[in-house]
Design a protein that fits this description.
This protein is an alpha/beta fold. It has three domains: 298 residues, ANL, N-terminal domain (Rossmann fold), CATH 3.40.50; 90 residues, Luciferase, Domain 3 (Luciferase, domain 3), CATH 2.30.38; 113 residues, 2-Layer Sandwich (GMP Synthetase, Chain A, domain 3). It is 29% helix and 23% strand. The protein has 16 helices and 27 strands. The strands form seven sheets. A seven-stranded antiparallel beta sheet has the order 14-15-16-21-20-18-17, covered by helices on one side. Strand 25, helix 14 and strand 26 form a beta-alpha-beta unit. The termini are far apart.
């Protein structure tokens, strides 16, 4: 299926499926998902939902919305979100899906940057929204009349190049940037998702995609939502990941594929056996960045192979990799092979080609005469950052990877997460992986901190599952790591905490973690293990 040739927009894909299979289920959730806004679950057929979308689109059209307008949505993963998104997309208007967990200052910043004239919210979010400074943005509850749009529009017939959504980066190294994403961008994400093949190949029968990921994330919006719209498949949009009801939701929904974050398999493996974990019919789990040890155990216990992959909000489906076609048991941190439409380079810090098998920064672009085709359209109001990211005609990902002779690629770490100690690049993910395997550790985050002698040192935040958070325990943790890591990779500092800061997409907030580590060293509240670490240099 040539998705880019067939459809103009996500709405076009939805409307085509609604006309072709009106009785097929578009959105569903089982009662076992225990959604607070739908305790009995829900099911919406394409045909009936298309009528809701049409009525809402008419209301937006009469209120003057169209190409050039942006509407912020704080509706979670509820069916009403899809109704507003598709109604606006039908007119060429863009959405700004917002995280309901944003703090007031974060919400104010995103609304101000987006210049959204309207914020449509679920009623239970209104109280917290009113704590933020909304400026010129008007707030309305979903279901209320649509206020008139103030501003010019370029018409109400969408084009592939039109802005579809403004998504915010995680802001791990500063204020979030607004990524302008077109209709083509989302169609290309869906095309890549369908083109993975291997264990992720579409079966040809009814497909049901269950995701706990938020619709303010490109994975859920592009792969899960648009990916199902183009084939008339079903989206099961959970409000978030709930470990206790996960397998029952997967089984009861009839999901043929599930999406999750890398940490979810680790959590599920800690749960006692449940009958639903053997009752599901899913063919694969799309779960990037799963620890290799967890992956093997997960696949064996739950009879569900994991697909790893790499992409960014900025690259979408124009530059992405997947392990879907690789045999089971691929090596740790393998992200598979590049898509055939993706060109890439791996370069060292001087911008020269890194030797085969050595990590370097991944630079990518689209093959053909348009290197930016299918990528994000740019950072909103930040042309300088956009052009810097595209320096030399290649998009600089900020990710360190290595390529092997067989064509497979392996993720090393984020460029800004790497610890540069005495000239050695240390991947924080490698250290975290070893720490995660220690039985007394519940969670951890590793980050670089400044060191007057070595340049940088390895710092580990640790949440204990058991034991006393004291100096002896910190040294015990470092010694345990020495059985698996070279001495220079061992934590030089350990700090025990009760929680770790997370980003909007429930990933570790690396920027905040780095700042907290620097403060912990400054205040002397972390255990300094650098002398003990040096003694492990010849540890066997």
């Amino acid at each position: 299926m040539d998705i880019l040739a067939r459809f103009t927009s996500p709405f076009d894909a939805f409307a085509t499926s609604a006309a072709r299979v009106p009785n097929a289920t578009f959105l569903a959730a089982p009662a076992s998902a225990a959604l607070p806004y739908a305790p009995d679950g829900f099911a919406h057929e394409y045909g009936d939902f298309a009528q809701q979308v049409a009525a809402l689109s008419t209301a937006y059209a009469e209120a003057g919305y169209g190409r050039g307008a942006r509407v912020a949505l704080m509706l979670g993963n509820r069916p009403i979100f899809f109704a507003h998104w598709l109604a606006l997309n039908a007119l060429g208007a863009a959405i700004v899906p917002l995280n309901p967990d944003l703090r007031p200052d974060e919400l104010s910043f995103q609304l101000d940057l987006a210049r959204a004239g309207l914020l449509v919210a679920a009623e239970d979010y209104v109280a917290r929204i009113r704590l933020a400074e909304l400026g010129a943005c008007r707030l309305v509850v979903a279901g209320a009349p649509i206020p008139a749009h103030h501003g010019e529009i370029l018409g109400q017939t969408p084009q592939q190049s039109d802005e579809c959504a403004l998504l915010f980066t995680s802001g791990s190294t500063g204020k979030p940037k607004g990524c302008l994403l077109s209709n083509r961008y989302f169609l290309q994400v869906a095309a890549w998702f369908h083109g993975q093949g291997g264990i992720a190949a579409m079966s040809g029968g009814p497909e049901i995609n269950l995701t706990p990921l938020p619709m303010f994330h490109m994975n859920a919006l592009g792969c899960s939502a648009v990916g199902m719209m183009v084939i008339g498949g079903t989206v099961v949009p959970l409000d978030r990941f709930h470990a206790s009801s996960w397998w029952q939701s997967v089984a009861d929904s009839g999901a043929t594929m599930v999406h999750c974050l890398g940490v979810i398999p680790a959590i599920l493996l800690r749960l006692p056996p449940h009958e639903a974990e053997q009752r599901h019919v899913a063919r694969f789990a799309f779960a990037p960045s799963v620890d290799a040890l967890h992956r093997a155990t997960f696949e064996q216990r739950f009879r569900l192979p994991i697909v790893d992959a790499w992409a960014m909000t900025e690259t979408g489906g124009a530059a992405a990799t997947t392990t879907a076609r690789e045999p089971a048991g691929f090596a740790p941190r393998c992200i598979g092979r590049p898509d055939e439409g993706m060109q890439f380079r791996i370069v060292d810090d001087a911008g020269q080609e890194a030797p085969l098998g050595q990590p370097g920064e991944l630079l990518v672009r689209a093959a053909g005469p348009e290197p930016r085709a299918g990528f994000f359209s740019g950072y909103l109001d930040d042309d300088a950052a956009t052009e810097a990211a595209w320096e030399g005609g290649w998009f600089h990902t900020g990710d360190y990877v290595r390529a092997e002779p067989d064509g497979l690629m392996y993720f090393f770490d984020r460029k800004k997460s790497i610890v540069r100690r005495s000239g050695e690049n240390i991947a924080v993910l490698e250290v975290e992986s070893v720490l995660h395997r220690l039985p007394d550790i519940e969670a951890t985050a590793v980050t670089p901190v400044a060191d007057e002698l070595r340049g940088e040192e390895v710092f580990a935040f640790v949440i204990l599952a058991e034991g006393t958070p004291d100096a002896a325990h910190a040294e015990q943790i470092m010694s345990a790591c020495a059985e698996s890591l070279a001495y220079h990779k061992l934590p030089g500092y350990v700090a025990f905490v009760s929680e770790l800061p997370l980003s909007a997409t429930r990933k570790l907030a690396r920027g905040e973690i780095k700042s907290l580590a620097a403060e912990a060293v400054k205040l002397g509240v972390a255990y300094d293990l650098r002398k003990e670490k040096a003694s492990k240099r010849f540890f066997f």
